[in-house]
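Next comes this protein.

***
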Amino acid sequence: MGISEDIQQSKFISAHQKAIINILYTSSWIAEKTRSILLPQGITEQQFNVLRILRGNFPDPLSTLQIRERMLDKMSDTSRLVDRMTKKDLIVKKTNDHDKRLVDIVISEKGLELLKIADANEDHYYAAFQGIDKVEAEKLSELLDKLRAAH
């Protein structure tokens, strides 16, 4: 099925409008697949994003600002998100040794274990992309990069 059938709309103002609608629709579709993997783990997409960011920087800590800069969803309230994750023991916060006004954040052992479980389910997640091969996936990524670079 194509976007026209999925949203039951055959007329678009332009090819660009159709592409934008397709990107938004596909983004929601991917988000739903992601939520289905994360729901059993009891975490949100934003929390998953933070855990992956922290794991990528592990064992070095990051500040809340550094996390926010790397997040996929820049609209997230990172401070509250970090507080909720601290309560779930997924991350550890401590005062920065050099600047007491800053807080260092690292992923906890529990957070690392949760990501191992999520990683084990990635085959299910990537199965959503079985309709395109590696070359097509790379081309799609290049086109999306080009779209963002234009602005």
Summary: The chain is about 60% helix and 5% strand.
